[in-house]
């Protein structure tokens, strides 16, 4: 499964090999690309997402410099098992996957639900994480996170009725800036044409929603324990995980950096990928 120094380095997410590893009774589906290194960048994805939901315009620039691994957590996509109903349990599954690959130090790139899982992972295993990228996410007990049920179902219904992808409504503003950015993003997700992932099952999606709701209603935690260099980013109009929560994370994580993109929603990093990707590459390469 490993590569030799003579093998060409794949830096295109659309071409990255599909792999799997079994640990703790679960077979995890993952992809890896970029030059092999001791410290990889592990990508933690969003609600209802599989491996096919990562924007190649974010992944590819990072993979040009770094060893990148994306994965389906337990019960998601092609990974086996059942999705747990708590963010903390998802973090333990992620830990099982990462350590099964033999890594004892990683950088984390996370989006939305993935950012909640990343925070829980750092809380339990601070020695594992060197750097942290938190995008479109919020802290435990963050006001408004528990409303995600309502927003998700409302926007999904709107999308179905107008024959759009729900992410066009959930991630982007429905205006002159947002609509073309949404269409372009959805098209980019189709660039991989072979070895695509298994779509998320409805039961898995519902369990993820339950976990997010619990995260939003759980007690606030002390984020001053996060001492890793942290980059936080979002759009200024996030309807799924309110943008003010990104500012809250920034205030509470000492030394963190914050980027808020104007006239953008939950998918601000995807709308502004040309600006954001180089910032992420620089931060992770520092």
From TrEMBL:
It holds the Pfam family Abhydrolase_1. Residues 40-270 form the AB hydrolase-1 domain. One of its GO terms (molecular function) is hydrolase activity. Keywords: Hydrolase. SUPFAM superfamilies: alpha/beta-Hydrolases (SSF53474). PANTHER family: AB HYDROLASE-1 DOMAIN-CONTAINING PROTEIN (PTHR43433:SF5), HYDROLASE, ALPHA/BETA FOLD FAMILY PROTEIN (PTHR43433). This is Alpha/beta fold hydrolase. It comes from Promicromonospora kroppenstedtii. The lineage of its organism: Bacteria, Bacillati, Actinomycetota, Actinomycetes, Micrococcales.
């Amino acid at each position: 499964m490993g590569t030799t120094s003579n093998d060409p380095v794949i830096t295109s997410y659309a071409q990255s090999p599909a792999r799997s590893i079994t640990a703790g009774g679960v077979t995890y589906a993952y992809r890896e690309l970029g030059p092999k290194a001791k410290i990889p960048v592990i990508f933690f994805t969003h609600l209802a997402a599989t491996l096919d939901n990562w924007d190649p315009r974010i992944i590819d620039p990072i993979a040009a410099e770094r060893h990148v691994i994306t994965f389906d957590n337990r019960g998601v996509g092609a990974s086996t098992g059942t999705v747990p109903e708590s963010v903390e349990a998802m973090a333990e599954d992620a830990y099982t996957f990462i350590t099964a690959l033999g890594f004892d130090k990683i950088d984390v790139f996370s989006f939305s639900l993935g950012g909640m899982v990343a925070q829980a992972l750092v809380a339990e295993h601070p020695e594992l994480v060197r750097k942290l990228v938190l995008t479109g996410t919020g802290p435990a007990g963050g006001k408004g996170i528990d409303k995600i049920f309502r927003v998700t179902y409302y926007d999904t219904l709107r999308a179905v009725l107008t024959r759009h992808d729900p992410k066009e409504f959930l991630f982007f503003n429905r205006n002159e800036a947002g609509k073309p950015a949404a269409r372009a993003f959805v098209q980019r997700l189709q660039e991989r044409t072979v070895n695509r992932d298994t779509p998320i099952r409805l039961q898995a999606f519902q369990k993820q929603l339950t976990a997010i709701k619990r995260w939003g209603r759980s007690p606030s935690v002390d984020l001053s324990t996060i001492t890793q260099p942290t980059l936080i980013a979002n759009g200024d109009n996030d309807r799924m995980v309110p943008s003010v929560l990104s500012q809250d994370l920034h205030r509470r994580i000492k030394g963190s950096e914050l980027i808020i993109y104007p006239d953008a929603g939950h998918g601000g990093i995807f709308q502004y990928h040309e600006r954001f990707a180089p910032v992420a590459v620089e931060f992770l390469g520092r």
